[in-house]
Fold these 3 entries.
Entry 1:
Amino acid sequence: MKYDNYDVLIVGSGVSGLYAALNTDPAMKILMLSKRELTLCNSALAQGGVAAVMDTDNDSFDLHIKDTLIAGGYKNDRGNLRILVEQGPKDVKNLLSCGVEFDRKDDGSIDLTLEGGHSRRRIAHHKDSTGYEIVTSLIERVKKLENVTILENSHLLGLKKQDGRFYSDVMHEGTHHYYTTKTAVLATGGIGRVYDYTTNSAIATGDGIQFAYNMGAEIKHLSYIQFHPTAFADKKNRECFLVSEAVRGEGAYLLNCHKKRFMDKYEPERKELAPRDVVSKCILKEQEETGSDEFFLDISHKGADFIKNRFPMIYQKVLEKGYDMTKEPIPIYPCQHYLMGGIAVNGHGATTVEGLYAAGECAHTGVHGINRLASNSLLEALVFSRLIAEDINKKYTPDKEYAPIDADCPSPSGKPLPSGIRTEIRHIMQKSYFVVPNYAEAEKHLARVEEIKDMLYNGGYELTPDYIEAKSLTTVAYIILGEVVAEGKEKGEI
Ligand SMILES: Cc1cc2nc3c(=O)[nH]c(=O)nc-3n(C[C@H](O)[C@H](O)[C@H](O)COP(=O)(O)OP(=O)(O)OC[C@H]3O[C@@H](n4cnc5c(N)ncnc54)[C@H](O)[C@@H]3O)c2cc1C
């Protein structure tokens, strides 16, 4: 067992956690946690890129804002959206100085690409593995910072605030370690694992949201969930491989079970380039028409050289699954992809609990409205984690030495967790809310989710990573279904 004190706890080593650490005053002692290996996170999976107004001759802040508002159903927080768009280019340039390599044109300028919902080419990308390029470059930088201690494979199991300080319980190599910090930043990512099928990595269990909720922080719009229309459809894996939006951006067609284009029926102007929520809903409508859930994405008309050069990773992955995308359409279907809601934060990432910040996918800045525009998420993770760091820097005063924690450490012993909880929660969520909410199913299952939640909260289970993930998924499902049922009642559909 180990005890220690730090100035700042950062939970998460995705883009938001890493970038927050990089921008924090080096005078502060930072502890950064990653519950699995450093690169196992949604950030490292990002393919398409980062959206920002880099080409001011052909693009403008107002256009980026307009596209984001259209995609978000005009439900976006306009103040935070303006911050995102106007500050974004600064952070994309900062990435360049952190060693991130974006694809370039022959004249050396950044080769900006197009994605669904964008009216201009504004996506900076590294082939089709932008997230991995950014994460690995930032990890290299953060590892050089003497004030940052990175604890890999270290799972936050408990977080509470007492007498103005945060107390955390962290499991590392099977042992509990206890830390106190003045400030805590939750950068714990999304909630995809609450579904049967998701593009999200295994860490996306909503832990940060659960901790914030139980500390009394405001949680907002957790039912604003994005279902990406083009995940590779093999129906064999929980983690579905994403076929990036950029493939449609570069001209791919969506085809139904008869291998016929259908988007013009529902979206005559934008066709395949309509925002994600619209395309996913069109796919379900077409499924009703044809009676088949077989759908395809076809970019073979662009030629093998272009495809292999522009989408080398996707080409290879899909080839491993038995399809040559340079020659044939590939099977796709919508699946859970992103969370627009989360821990409510203000314009510099502060939650409603003093000293507690949230950044990236676990936070709700409101910039995305009800549907995130492609490639705005990495941008949000960058801009708002820097603003968090700047706010922490502003408030920094050297800390007095704190005595090691001697009391209130939760007992690690308890009953073992029964099996099957997570599977049950996932099935419930898949039935109750896939692309569009099913109000009747949500109402039917809410009481059962509440029952599981009560059992997990009060059952005296041993405090382990498995227990925390089950508790987080159940808490998240409970909040989402509660919102869905309330909406159904408001609409008079239940
Ligand atoms: C397949 C895919 C493709 C995408 N493509 C794009 C794209 O092209 N452009 C774009 O803008 N967005 C894209 N996104 C979305 C974007 O990648 C994510 O929203 C964003 O990277 C989230 O970053 P984050 O730092 O908030 O979380 P993550 O990168 O997911 O990091 C979360 C971190 O929290 C840690 N953590 C969680 N719980 C605990 C705990 N209890 N204890 C300790 N550590 C914990 C994890 O270990 C991890 O290090 C994509 C997402 C996916 C899944």
Note: The longest strand covers residues 175-186.
Entry 2:
Amino acid sequence: MRGDAVLRVIRAYDDRVVRAYCWGRFWILRQRFLDAIGRHLPAEGPVLDVGCGFGLFSLYYAQVLPGLSLRGLDINPRRIEMARCAAARLGLSNVTYELGDAMAYHADGEYAGAYMLDIVHHIPEDAVRPLVEQLFKALAMGGRLIIKDVDTRPAYKRWFTHALDRLMDPTTPVRYWSADELEALLAEVGFRVGRQRLPDYLPYPHVLYVCERQD
Ligand SMILES: C[S@@+](CC[C@H](N)C(=O)[O-])C[C@H]1O[C@@H](n2cnc3c(N)ncnc32)[C@H](O)[C@@H]1O
């Protein structure tokens, strides 16, 4: 069922390059990672996907967690358009997409959850804290912000990730945070942070941060 949901997402795009990208993303963030992330999402309620890209992960979670009402934001209009088309093709009414800059995001509702998958390192360093602060404000008490990003260590894994980021988008600078540094920032903003490595045979230094809003 969960594997079928992944296949349905990939088939919802006409563009071959985008389909190939989806295969790649679902290979990197494959089922056990989707499950590791998904188990920290609420079973129902509004959830924000910041930097949703083509929408592949929100389209996946909209299928396997039908009680969620997902809202994807991305700065790239083509990606948002493709995400909307894919949602329509899949007949999903519990996911919407909007063009938006995460750096201009202001808490705009009460969310049961939010997530950012490989977004933090694409955001300029001094914009990360304001974004995290706004997400903190936007979450209901007990709500969770889930971040999947990459550590700076070991160095060979960081270089591997950097090479792929450059390949995908040679012009946009990236700023990788060490897991200690990002965890400290999240805690300073007020989250109770759980951090775990997601070990893999691919040389990605994946880290998952589960950040709970508390009193
Ligand atoms: C590596 S992709 C990840 C996309 C998606 N989260 C995924 O895992 O497939 C990074 C995404 O961040 C988006 N992005 C970069 N800067 C952004 C910003 N300031 N506001 C919103 N989205 C942004 C890009 O357009 C791109 O879709």
Note: The chain has one domain: 2-213.
Entry 3:
Amino acid sequence: MPRPETLLAHAGCSPDPATGAVVAPPYLTTTFERAEDGSYPHGYQYGRTGNPTREQFEETLNAFEGGAGCVGFASGMAAAMTVLQALPAGKHLLLPEDVYYGVQRLIEEAFDDRFSVSPVDMTDLDALEAAFRAETLLVWTETPSNPMLHITDLQAVADLTHAHDALLLVDGTWTTPLLQRPLDLGADLVLHSVTKYLAGHSDVLGGAVVAAEQSGLFDHVRSIQETGGAVMDPFSAWLALRGMRSLAPRLRVQCASARQIATFLDEHDRVETVHHPSLPHHPGHDIAARQMDDFGGMLSFEVQGAHDAAMEVAARVEVFRRATSLGGTESLIEHRASIEPEGSATPEGLLRLSIGLEHVDDLIADLSQALG
Ligand SMILES: Cc1ncc(COP(=O)(O)O)c(C=O)c1O
């Protein structure tokens, strides 16, 4: 088995059988011709149920993640919605208190009457243990969390989850298998917003679910994808593969710059707190050092003076772009509390950074002038 970097460098580069093109073109077709006897000689019938480019994406991500199967979706939220649809009703779910707010909103809007849900501080294993019920079916977790970068011990959570006969889903969007391998640590499912680091250029929406093993639940996810139609379209799959080819060097630079920026902010007089697990005083530093290959390209910090001061800093940046999302080549800054629903626990003085590929000195100079 090639190393992940080698696998990624060749993503989508198995020569096109028709022409020998090293990068096969996207198969932008909605339907496939039958033979005279009515059969489908190439195994494809209709674009919703199967497409060679989408399959190539699914096979590549599955191999990268070390899974037994992968399903590609139109977005990360389509992936989340399909997993929730595939779960039997009447069960109990455990979610991190600071789960990505889109997932929390989706459950409230579409699944409120199907499941009971308990928010838990997943960094506190005693609290997690106490939250299980007989009908707990799924533990959903994210580490580092968004936007506070809390670190959850995945191996410990997987052991606890399995001791209660439940399943563990890890949202791996912020890390990709290059930084963290949830399946090796015991997760049953990994979810990705492909929109972020995997595709990596802020130009495609996509999502995916990878399973540790073939199971009835995974088959159900696949079948809802095909019948429900929240599929990754072939051009998005092609763009995602193109992005994945450069993931390893991108992420290396993003992580190195994020570490340097975290240290710069940590020493700045106008900054109250920096949340990045690379910092030795971060409460999750030791666990992150153990379970991650690097500390990630995302960080957040709290500015003295709360809301108004944070908004002023965001208004003054010139290299960072003021936008939501993450994982692209361009660095982004976001006042997170103002995009999250009312009542969110995100501090008003918090700014979230997604570190891109600009020279780190330019990013530090920009933050320095913005902080004044
Ligand atoms: C951690 C995480 N999971 C899931 C999603 C949803 O992904 P998408 O925007 O592709 O639907 C996001 C989007 O920001 C995210 O940050």
Note: The domain at 247-371 is CATH 3.90.1150.10 (Aspartate Aminotransferase, domain 1).
